[in-house]
Amino acid sequence: MLAAAKVNLYLHVAAPDARGYHPLQSLVAFADIGDEVTFSPLQSAGSSKNLISCLSIEGPFAEGLQADESNLILKAVRRFEAAAGVRVDRHTIRLTKNLPVASGIGGGSADAGATLRLLRELYAPNMPDSDLAAIAGAIGADGIMCLWSQSAFAEGYGERLTPVTLPEVPAVLVNPGVECATARVYGGYDAVGRFNEIEAMSGFLDVSDIRQLISALSHTRNDLQSPAIHLQPVIAEVLTALEAQKETLFARMSGSGATCFALCETDEAASALSGRMQAMMPAAWVRACRLG
Ligand SMILES: C[C@](O)(CO)[C@H](O)COP(=O)(O)OP(=O)(O)OC[C@H]1O[C@@H](n2ccc(N)nc2=O)[C@H](O)[C@@H]1O
Ligand SMILES: Nc1ncnc2c1ncn2[C@@H]1O[C@H](COP(=O)(O)OP(=O)(O)OP(=O)(O)O)[C@@H](O)[C@H]1O
Q1: Domain limit, last residue, from 110, 134, 155
Q2: Closest ligand 1 atom to Cα of 22
């Protein structure tokens, strides 16, 4: 099951509430690339004594991620077991970690979301969407959007979703290989103390092609881009490099960073841009994809 990368096409953030959480408004889209979560039946049902041993992690970003209770996949399993009143003991879980960790494209939330979709299918097919969403939302602010992996306006703290139809857009994702801890980036936004208002955005409801999308995006921001650059200045280098390329129609950082995205007219343009960015930044993670 694909655990699709999430891209915040824009992200408007208001002042924190009493708990320190930030009301926001974002347009999120999902890529056709991501991590892979696979469930395999155990040889003898019920033979797993310890679920920790049932999660294995492989792939280019496996290193540094623990296959223990700190992993969002096992957090999803635990919460699902409690909500459904079942024991998840008939399968092993394999995560192929293709997405960089703590990179603003929701990898951990997407892994949890893919896990929950598979768990429902295999262990509680009658569980309503609302129950599954409640589990995903308890795991993180991006949990519900990454559970459904559908383009949407996200409001509230990221949990209130309005589906939106976007054109499929060729894109390039670039992560410079530095981690951005979400809480630190929000903390940097608070430290500056210049908070934006969140206005209703209607310009995206009838977007049918990439030009209209970019025109609507030009009136928006990612309010976390500046505090993320303050923490990791290399993000500004990525954006400058992307903006200087002829294939780039629009470039911005996603989420709390450090991954940046460029939107392109065609798949060929995205592929050419991806190749050139990788040559310019050999240590970076660079991928051409489609957002939709
Ligand atoms: C930046 C975004 O990715 C945009 O979609 C999200 O707002 C963050 O989503 P996430 O990574 O799932 O966030 P969580 O794991 O729930 O929270 C991490 C930390 O981010 C901060 N946080 C998160 C969401 C939000 N609306 N306001 C916040 O201030 C809190 O300090 C929290 O402790
Ligand atoms: N399966 C997982 N994949 C990635 N990170 C995980 C996973 N399980 C736990 N984590 C922890 O969660 C934290 C956030 O990782 P993640 O990759 O989801 O961040 P992100 O891409 O910045 O997400 P967002 O865009 O939602 O802020 C990391 O510090 C990581 O150690």
Answers
A1: 155
A2: 27
